[in-house]
Task: inverse folding
């Protein structure tokens, strides 16, 4: 946590990457409480994940997309958190806990997410152990059903073959055996993601595991709309579409600004294949410092740049799509991959700071990184530790005339754009306090 004081004539201000500390006044914590599905005791990590006590903006994610869009926003979801010692980060929850699953889906829904893409390792992943991705997802489905607006789709990960292939099977045979299971287990759900009536299945890196006969797979399950990773999804005749993934550089060559050539090329190529499903991608950055599978000399990194990378990924969508050329899906990369530093569950550090000073009945406001703020909210303390919303203001507001009815103390809250953290000022003493 980083806390900075500004000594001003009227008051000392504080702001932090985490919700308010006692320095800001204990009562003001109620204006920016921990509000995500993350474990509230989860500590921020060295690879760029905020702590579980962060207050994250619930401004609808769709507000970052072009006007008139029909795009569904899907969160890439990893239900693989079980033993705290088994992975590079101890997140403090279990993916097979139904109560945790419900918190997750409620959190997604509150932020405007339309569904989840489940990173799936096969029916018997974990070699028959109870702590498996498929078991966790089975336990999660009844909780997802409590939010019927949310959809889900399966992404068949290369781990399906690498860790869970059928005996003596090659990649194609493994996929075929798993598809039979997916078809009768998941496609019957009313919440399963469909495109033009066909169930959508994503695949991640199966071609990296060996030669895959996709025409044979498609012939066995013609009902499936396959969406493949990267440009190959547009090139294949048996493919329904493609999705883009984050492409970080080497950590040894850390950049301060994200370079996104792969993302730009994906959208350029997608426009030449209008009949195929394009699934865009948005992300905050990347850092696999804590990933056990990343070799010391092969670590990768993409800067978050105080939220600029996140907004750039949306800008590229908005430059290439419109009401006349709709983007069907966009994938949030990722909801909870804490090992690669892409977790959006605990929000994005927007580096916003708030400075205020009071002159008479006018409150002067100065924000850093105002481009990351959706709007400002002025609150007045009320009895019982509660607050009354006085009014809302645009983030460009430099001066706020205090209403005659406001006594105080007052607090100014900078509500972040979608997925950014919220920031609250220290108490503003008006001199009218009773």
Result:
């Amino acid at each position: 946590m980083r806390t900075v004081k500004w000594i001003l004539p009227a008051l000392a201000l504080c702001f932090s990457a985490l919700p308010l500390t006692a320095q800001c006044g204990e009562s003001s914590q109620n204006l920016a409480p921990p509000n995500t599905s993350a474990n509230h005791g989860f500590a921020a990590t060295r690879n760029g994940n905020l702590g579980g006590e962060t207050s994250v903006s619930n401004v609808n994610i769709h507000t970052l997309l072009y006007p008139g869009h029909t795009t569904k926003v899907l969160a890439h979801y990893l239900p693989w958190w079980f033993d705290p010692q088994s992975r590079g980060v101890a997140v403090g929850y279990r993916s097979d806990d139904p109560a945790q699953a419900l918190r997750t889906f409620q959190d997604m829904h509150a932020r405007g997410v339309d569904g989840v893409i489940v990173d799936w390792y096969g029916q018997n992943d974990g070699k028959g152990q109870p702590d498996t991705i498929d078991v966790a997802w089975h336990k999660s489905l009844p909780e997802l059903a409590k939010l019927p607006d949310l959809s889900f789709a399966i992404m068949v990960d290369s781990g399906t073959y690498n860790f869970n292939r059928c005996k003596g099977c090659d990649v194609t045979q493994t996929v075929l055996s798993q598809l039979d299971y997916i078809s009768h287990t998941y496609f019957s759900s009313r919440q399963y993601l469909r495109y033009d009536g066909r169930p959508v299945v994503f695949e991640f890196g199966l071609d990296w595991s060996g030669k895959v006969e996709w025409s044979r797979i498609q012939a066995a399950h013609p009902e499936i709309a396959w969406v493949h990773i990267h440009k190959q999804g547009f090139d294949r005749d048996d493919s329904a579409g493609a999705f883009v993934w984050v492409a970080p550089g080497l950590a040894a060559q850390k950049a301060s600004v994200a370079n996104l050539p792969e993302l730009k090329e994906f959208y350029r190529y997608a426009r030449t294949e209008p009949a195929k499903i394009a699934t865009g991608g948005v992300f905050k950055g990347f850092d696999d410092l804590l990933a056990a599978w990343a070799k010391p000399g092969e670590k990768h990194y993409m800067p978050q740049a105080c939220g600029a990378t996140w907004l750039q990924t949306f800008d590229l969508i908005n430059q290439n799509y419109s009401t006349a050329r709709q983007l069907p899906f966009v994938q949030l990369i990722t909801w909870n991959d804490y090992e690669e530093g892409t977790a959006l569950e605990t929000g994005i550090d927007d580096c916003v700071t708030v400075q205020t000073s009071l002159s008479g009945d006018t409150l002067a406001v100065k924000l850093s990184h105002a481009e990351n703020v959706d709007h400002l909210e002025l609150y007045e303390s009320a009895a019982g530790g509660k607050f009354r919303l006085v009014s809302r203001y645009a983030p460009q507001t430099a001066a706020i005339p205090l209403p005659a009815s406001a006594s105080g103390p007052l607090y100014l809250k900078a509500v972040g754009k979608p997925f950014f953290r919220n920031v609250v000022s220290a108490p503003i003493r008006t001199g009218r306090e009773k």
About this structure: The radius of gyration is 23 Å.
